[in-house]
Amino acid sequence: MGLKAGIIGCGSITKFRHAPEYKVNPYVDDIVFYDRNPERAEALAEMFGGTVALSVEDLLDDPSIQIVSDCSSNEYHHIFSTQALLNGKHVLCEKPISLTIEDAKEIIEAQKKSGKVLMVDHNQRFTRTHQKAKEMIDSGALGKVLTFKTTFGHKGPEHWGVNKSNSTWFFKKDRSRFGVAGDLGIHKIDLLHYLLNDNIEQVSAFQGALDKVDEKGHPIEVCDNIVCTLKTKQGRLGTASFSWTYYGEEDNSTIIYCEKGILKVYHSEEYQLQVIFNNGEKENYMLESIQTNDHQTNSGVIDAFIDCILFNKDPVVSGEDALASLKVIIGILEAAEINRVVTI
């Protein structure tokens, strides 16, 4: 008997990632879709051969649904993920885990109480390239990590979102809260924590709504660009840039500078991972290209989530991991606002 999955929210992330990955997972038999716009749920149910729940309560109360993907907009995660866990479902929550530290803690408490799996979709940990980079760092072949820089930018959520317009909820302060920092930045903060096996402890930043306008032609209420300096607990120093205004091409690259050389991740078109040793020797790895908004591939997230449930494994990204990244993003935005260094 296979698993039955429920998906809350039928935007682009469900259409391009969650639904197709559940569809091809051999352990999942059926998908139930819910969206507050019923026609969106119906369209995806037709596309992926699933059924539609008429209300979110119907989905959460259905005892035959064992797993739930919470793909609602950010301000609802703590409501739906908490309810799903307390109703005995395993939950895969989209990032960021929530908009506040208190709400994130509420979800984590619900997970502890329920004993069910909670995984958060920080999908950068799942690429073979990032896993290989982590292996190399952990092996000590390049010595200690000293400094780093990372960036994540594309042309903006209005090109990716379900309604393809600048009325997107990503541009609304009450719904997305963090702008590009919570959309793209939080992925890279989680990645740095994962690659470096370390946590970011101090931050400073500049941010602005430099170019994006809302449906009325006014500058958006959240940042479309943010540039930060970061210091980790172990004393490593780095920079990070997050942008919705990289109009020529997407950039999702990271460079890690170590005592004995450099790791370049998603920096070259040809090689996803490049290692440059301090004696000038180079190693190039062709592993896989990273997902972009224009090039969707299987992220591996759903498969990993299902594996946790079936084989009693720890989630690759726990609620606590997601909370650690959320705290950094909140700190970065505070630093930009008060123009000072903030300790996380």
TrEMBL record:
Matching InterPro entries: Gfo/Idh/MocA-like_OxRdtase_N, Gfo/Idh/MocA_Oxidoreductase, GFO_IDH_MocA-like_dom, NAD(P)-bd_dom_sf
Superkingdom of origin organism: Bacteria
Pfam family for this entry, one: GFO_IDH_MocA_C3
Protein name listed in UniProt: Dehydrogenase
GFO/IDH/MocA-like oxidoreductase domain ranges (all copies): 130-263
Species this chain originates from: Peribacillus deserti
Sequence ranges assigned to domain Gfo/Idh/MocA-like oxidoreductase N-terminal in this UniProt record: 4-122
